[in-house]
Amino acid sequence: MIRRGRRFGDRLLVLFILPQSQAAVRIGFTAQRAVGGAVERNRVKRRLRAAVQEMAEHIGECGDLVVMGKPEVADAPWNEVLGALKRVLRRAGCWKERE
């Protein structure tokens, strides 16, 4: 399913945009197996989920999103995680400024 979408990468994460199947934007989270065991992968997914929640008002309707964490996101400072997410959302055309 991800092969049908577009991919936007950064040092810390990868954003996949899939053709929208419903009216509401859906966001999924995953972590590469290279991140580590289940505990480490879940920690990365929690960090990504928190970053998306913090930036929720800036995410426009551009399709279904899948955010995949790379191994570097586990130890990255919080500001870098937010910056990486913002960069890929802008590159993907999903970033909207406050109204």
Describe this structure in words.
- With 99 residues, the protein is an alpha+beta fold.
- The chain is built from two helices and four strands.
- Helix content is 32%, strand content 21%.
- It has a four-stranded mixed beta sheet with strand order 1-2-4-3, with helices on one face.
- The longest helix is centred in the middle third of the chain and has 17 residues, at 38-54.
Summarize the structure.
The protein is an alpha+beta fold. It is 32% helix and 21% strand.
Topology:
Blueprint: E1 6-9, E2 13-18, E3 27-31, H1 38-54, E4 64-69, H2 78-92
Please supply descriptive tags for the structure shown above.
globular, alpha+beta, 99 residues
How do the SSEs run, as a string of H and E?
Answer: EEEHEH
Radius of gyration: 13 Å
Biggest sheet character: 4 strands, mixed
Mean of the pLDDT scores? Answer: 89
Give the beta-strand count: 4
**Approximate helicity band:** 25-40%
Strand order of the largest sheet: 1-2-4-3
Strand percentage, roughly? 15-25%
Unreliably modeled segments: none
How many helix segments?
A: 2
Classify the secondary structure makeup into a structural class. Answer: alpha+beta
Q: Could you give the distance between the termini?
A: 33 Å
What is the approximate shape? globular
